[in-house]
Amino acid sequence: MTSIEVETPHGPARAELHCAEEGRAALLLGHGAGGGVHAPDLVAATRAATDAGVHVALVEQPYRVAGRKAPAPAKQLDAAWLAVVEDLGERWFADLPLIFGGRSSGARVACRTAEAGEAEAVLCLAFPLHPPGKPEKSRAAEIDAVETPVLVVQGERDAFGRPEPALHREVVLVAGDHSLKADVDAVHRATSEWLAKVLRLLD
């Protein structure tokens, strides 16, 4: 594991790199609004990816690196993420297909930036479709805009709702709530199976 800092328009971000033996692609994963890159579902997805021959970068947003708890505005999150994508794509993952992903807020960032960052696929762990109890404030447009393969791994009791399956979108329900802590093996399994399909498309 290697930890590096990456300059962004909103201060330094941090990337924790987990390299696979055979680098067939690279998966960049972002954290939730109030959590870090070592959330159980992110750890499970990292293990699934490296087992599949995919490098992983766990990306810590500048506000977290600076020690702030409140997340930055969406435009700042997206700009910082794309700066990290560009840097890692040149320095570490040259010529490799890039897959975006993250949990909760990080999944939203991955969806919003997928086109601009030329992501080949997007992994959404606990995508927060709407604030709890406010289905009228849907964020479906963010995930609906992604035209590459998408996997959503969602807790059956997630108070933030869940996206529906669609043409390029697979939705896997696992036991538990928004934290996805109840069955990390199911998160690992769903990620592994989906990555195998994505890698076949990329070959």
How does this structure look, described?
By secondary structure, this protein is an alpha/beta fold. It has one domain (2-202): Alpha/Beta hydrolase fold, catalytic domain (Rossmann fold, 3-Layer(aba) Sandwich), CATH 3.40.50.1820. 33% of the residues lie in helices and 23% in strands. Strands 1-2-4-3-5-6-7-8 form an 8-stranded mixed beta sheet, with helices on both faces. Helix 5 links the parallel strand 6 and strand 7 (150-155). The mean pLDDT is 96. Pfam families: Abhydrolase_11. Residues 24-183 form the KANL3/Tex30 alpha/beta hydrolase-like domain. This is KANL3/Tex30 alpha/beta hydrolase-like domain-containing protein.
Largest sheet: 8 strands, mixed
Counting helices, strands and paired strands, the structural category is alpha/beta
Shape: globular
Unreliable stretches, pLDDT < 50, 5 or more residues? none
How many E strands? 8
Strand content: 15-25%
Total of domains: 1
Whole-angstrom Rg: 15 Å
Number of helices: 6
Q: What pattern of helices and strands is seen along the backbone? A: EEEHEHHEHEHEEH
- Look at the structure and give the mean pLDDT: 96
Give helix % range: 25-40%
Any guess at the CATH architecture?
3-Layer(aba) Sandwich
Mind telling me the CATH superfamily name? Answer: Alpha/Beta hydrolase fold, catalytic domain
Task: Tell me the span between the first and last alpha carbons.
Answer: 26 Å
Tell me the strand order in the biggest sheet.
Answer: 1-2-4-3-5-6-7-8
